[in-house]
Design brief:
Radius of gyration: 23 Å
Number of helices: 14
Main location: membrane
Membrane topology: Multi-pass membrane protein
CATH class of the largest domain: Mainly Alpha
Strand content: under 5%
Helix content: over 70%
CATH topology of the largest domain: MetI-like fold
InterPro entries: MetI-like, MetI-like_sf
Number of domains: 2
Structural class: mainly alpha
Distance between the termini: 19 Å
Keywords: Cell membrane, Membrane, Transmembrane, Transmembrane helix, Transport
Number of strands: 0
Family: Belongs to the binding-protein-dependent transport system permease family. CysTW subfamily.
Order of helices and strands: HHHHHHHHHHHHHH
CATH superfamily of the largest domain: MetI-like
Length: 282
């Protein structure tokens, strides 16, 4: 039954069932976000004054590009590790697959702050990794790993790889093995089979996972704050500083509006790319 026939048959009943959720989204998501964005256009200095002030600040634009860089790298690394893990899980037999899925998503059973503190213990100046490198004679003095961009990316990848795995496992499971075997039997190399068969068929899961990881890392607060500190300020931590330390609510709303616009743009761009690669992906 097509969606058109469904709505014709169910009519008002369908609208009545979806009305509560629709009203909740409008009342608790769209209206607050709209009010925040609208507030940035009521500055007495001019309608675009907050945005001009933001982009004229070298520090704030640096924070914006740093956030985009961290989010992009986190997404790419999570995609690589997530795809490899999801492929292994999807090809595993029954009970083994269940155990692998539990192991893959185990980090989600602990809080974000707990996981960030775990990395503080590992990457600290006197942490486990530095002690190991010193004991092996690889370095002569402890490395400065905390409060660097690398530390933030490592923490974010650890945080979001399970989401990528969950997004991809179902998609990879539904790719018939016969298709891959047919590609090989027709003379395609493993690399060609991957690029021309497996990857295009996995696009729906890749897009969903990439959107989840990018938006999550782009708006993350606790992990960048704990592992990056003020040296690696990102948009979310800058927003918190403007709102709760400087009490600059217009500045904080401007940052929130910029984050919203960038997030929506990235989602639309990824959907467009998905349609170009695989018209059935969306």
């Amino acid at each position: 039954m097509t969606a058109r026939h469904f709505w014709r048959r169910n009519g008002a009943t369908g609208w009545a069932l979806t009305a509560p959720a629709t009203l909740a989204v409008i009342g608790f998501l769209i209206v607050p976000i709209g009010a925040v964005i609208a507030g940035t256009f009521m500055d007495p200095r001019g309608i675009f004054a907050p945005y001009i002030s933001y982009f004229n600040s070298g520090f704030r634009t640096t924070v914006l590009f740093r956030t985009l860089q961290i989010s992009a790298l986190t997404t790419i690394i999570s995609l690589i590790f997530g795809f490899m893990t999801a492929y292994v899980v999807s090809r595993a037999p029954g009970k083994v697959k269940s155990l692998l899925i539990v192991a893959a998503v185990f980090p989600l059973l602990t809080g974000v702050v707990v996981r960030a503190f775990a990395w503080l213990i590992i990457l600290g100046r006197n942490g486990i990794l530095n002690q190991t490198l010193l004991a092996l004679g690889i370095v002569n003095e402890p490395l400065e790993m905390l409060y660097t961009q690398g530390a933030v990316i490592v923490g974010m990848v650890y945080l979001f790889v399970p989401l990528m795995v969950l997004s991809l496992v179902g998609v990879l499971e539904n790719i018939p093995r016969d298709v891959l075997q047919a590609s090989s039997s027709l003379g395609a190399s493993p690399v060609a089979t991957f690029w021309q068969v497996l990857l295009p068929l996995a696009v729906p899961g890749l897009i969903v996972g990439a959107v989840l990881v990018f938006t999550g890392s782009f708006t993350a607060y606790a992990t960048p704050q704990l592992l990056g500190g003020e040296r690696q300020t990102v948009l979310a931590t800058l927003l918190q500083q403007r709102a709760m330390v400087s009490f600059d609510w217009v500045g904080a709303s401007t940052i929130a509006a910029i984050m919203t616009v960038i997030t929506i743009t990235i989602v639309l761009a990824m959907s467009h790319i998905a349609r170009r690669i695989n018209p059935m992906a969306t």
